[in-house]
Each structure stands twice: as C-alpha cells, then as structure tokens.
Amino acid sequence: xxxxxxxxxxVAVTDLERARGFFVDQLGLPLIDETPFALRFAAGGxxxxxxxxxEPKVGQTVGHFEVSGLDELVRDxxxxxVAFQEYETPKTVGFIAQIGPARxxxxxxxxGNVFGLREGPIPGR
Length: 125
Description:
The chain is α+β, with helices and mostly antiparallel strands. The protein has helices at about 15-25, 70-80; strands at about 10-15, 30-35, 40, 50-55, 60-65, 90-95, 95-100, 100-110, 115-120. The mean pLDDT is about 95.
C-alpha cells in the first residue's frame, strides 16, 4: 500500500522561473520534470520536491532534508545566497537549534515557504 509509495513534498510558488533558479542554482537540486504549471526536483534517497504555480501558505515548515554535516552545509548554502532564519523557539545559535538528539536549521524559498535541514538519528531506522 502506501508504505511502498514515493511521497513527494509539493509547495506553491508564485514564479516558477524564480523557483527554478533557487532550487537548481542555490540548493543544487536537479530538475527532473517540467510542465507549464509545475517543476519537480530530485533530492537524496530517491525523494523529490515539486513546486507548483499557486499561492504559498507561509509560516510553517513544509518539508525538511535529512542531512549530515549540518554546520558545513549551512555555510555552503549561505555562500550560495540562501538566507537562514534565527528563532527563539527552538532557540537557534548561528542558525542551528538543538532539538532533542537532533539539530536543525531553517530557510525560506523566495515565496516564503519554510524548509528545514535536520541532522540526527532518523526515526524508524
């Protein structure tokens, strides 16, 4: 059933060309499919991110990437122009928060969709 299905995160963006630049040039994700209304990008472990033309619902994290080397990755992405967020809850220091046994950092795409980076044990593995 669904436990064997690929789950693709989909977010709304107002400008597909701007989203293409952000996801390809700044995040380094390869574009794998394109329609007049949506773009789909490959990510690690066979996962994918889809962006569609629409009105974003900003404020909450829409998806996160499970990563290793969080500090280095934040520096690398910052150097590519990705602006990380500072928060009081959970408290970030240098854009990184400790969340139980994991650590996280968050950034917004050009439409305000919040994405996270999470480093730590992956539940269920």
